[in-house]
Amino acid sequence: MKGVWQERVEMGRARAEVYGFFSRVFLKRPREVDLNRLLAAETLDALGALYGDHPSLNGLRDVADEWSRGRLDPEEIQVQYDNLFLVPGPHYVPPYESVLLGDDAVGGAGRRGTLFGRKARRIASIYEEHGLGPSEGLDEFPDHIGVELAFMEYLCRRAAEAHAARDVQAAEFLENAASSFLREHLHAFSQRFASAIVEKGLSPTYEALAGLLASFLEDDLNEVSSGPDRRWENAVTCSC
Prior knowledge:
Layout: H1 4-27, H2 32-38, H3 41-51, H4 55-68, H5 74-86, H6 97-100, H7 118-129, H8 145-164, H9 168-200, H10 204-226
Helix pairs in contact: 1-8, 3-4, 4-10, 8-9, 9-10
């Protein structure tokens, strides 16, 4: 039987893997090699261990089937990514929290904010509190969904390391920081982000991935609020 310390180490690492997976999915325009990994049977099996018969996972399986049969061109998915997250236009979904949710600096709820507004600067200050500055080679703002997910990956991984070292104080500090960031920023952001992608109806690939992300964060928020769960021990290890 595993001791409680080992369980917490494994749980922290597993959560970090899932956060890292989704960070990579949304942070960068996918290359063909990334899509091969994303739509591989091994990745779908790992996601199946987490989600079971989730509708969004079934949607991703349909995309993977088209991919495996050569009916889906990588450029098609790349253009979908561009139109959703890079190029302002009729299908654009801002991947920035302060823009999508609105920034209190520009007049209240329901209005889109501006890039690197007050909310984004607040998030940047949270990163700095943990010794994190802008990453070399990373051009995105701190409130990009992929960057926020990478921050959660970092916190979960550091918490696992603290548990491995039997450093109770550090582990508690990092887990509380992750819970607060999820509750105050990433959860609401991800729900609106996912619904906006579905509303656009442009990309079955990103509709499925956004649905899985929103479901994961909803579950993770519930779990950190109610106590540990071990469902993420079969975490995705795809390097895409």
